[in-house]
Amino acid sequence: MQTLHPQGVAVPAIGFGTARFDSNDRCQRAVEIALDLGYRHVDTAQMYGTEPAVGAAIADSDVQREDVFLTTKLDSGNRSRDRVLSSTRESLDALGTAYVDLLLIHAPNRSVSHAETLRAMNELQRDGLVRHVGVSNFSVDQLREAIELSSTPILTNQVEYNPHHGQAALLAYCLDTDVLLTAYSPLDVGAVSNNDTLRAIGNRYGKTPAQVAIRWLVQQPLVSAIPKAGRRSHIAENLDVFDYELSPDEMRRIFAGAGGLPEDLAARIGDEPGRSG
Question: Sign of dihedral through CA atoms 138, 223, 174, 155?
Fold first, then answer.
């Protein structure tokens, strides 16, 4: 597994997403398969209802807890200081762990100030219950505000990012600030399978459109992807993307379908590998 190192923190380039499972049993089995195949980053959220399944899968796995980069997110109703502190402890109980590697604000919510939420998240860090903090679904301006408000670094902004949904402005800002861009829905809920450009590129390498989509993401500096799958074959397929590299022309063709890429950012992406391991 390749890793990224935003702010010197090692984060696996590909994680396993757990949104939209129709049962905890299916989620637990999928996470168990993912860990067995080599995934070492698991993403969950209070809103998903999958924390107990994720915790059970990690507990039943041969993989040690300290070898798993575990992320969860605060639900929209858990943004006040008291609810940040209490709901995170509830999440830790559900996950069966003493800490999470990353706690995110799931989405902007002005009913409680980001300042209050982030102060509470920073408090959890000081207590050792959370190692890193971040945000999700934040715009560039909202991310800038979060960076200013948090007393510790914002490690990531988790947003929808795939060959059908570009994030050029956010990517540029993340590169400027050494913030990881975590791509959820990297396969556009399966829609990338019908993308003719991805299929044509994949034929050259013996890869599926889904594998090309994930490769396109993780080949960009400071971008990780968290695909979700239920079948063992698809879980394995999504991880099998590190044995080839897309050409600059192929990268540009995919970017074109995602809204294009400014020339200055294209040069930076070409110059910065952004990963190691």
Answer: positive
How far is residue 1's CA from residue 240's CA, in Å, rounded to a whole number?
A: 10
What are the structural domains of the chain? 3-189+220-243 (3.20.20.100)
C-alpha dist (Å) from residue 110 to 27, 120, 167, 244: 32, 16, 23, 44
Q: How many residues can be counted in the chain? A: 277
Residues assigned a catalytic role: 48
Cα–Cα distance for residue pair 2/244, rounded to 1 Å: 13
Contact 99, 129 (CB under 8 A): yes
Question: Alpha-carbon distance 95 to 202, whole Å?
Answer: 37
Give dist(CA 105, CA 45) in Å, integer.
10
155 φ, ψ to 5°? -80, -40
pLDDT in tens, 205-250: 999 999 999 999 999 999 999 999 999 999 999 999 999 999 999 9
Q: What is the pLDDT of residues 245-271, one digit of tens each?
A: 999 999 999 999 998 888 888 888 865
Give pTM, 2 decimals.
0.95
In contact, 28 and 56? CB cutoff 8 Å: yes
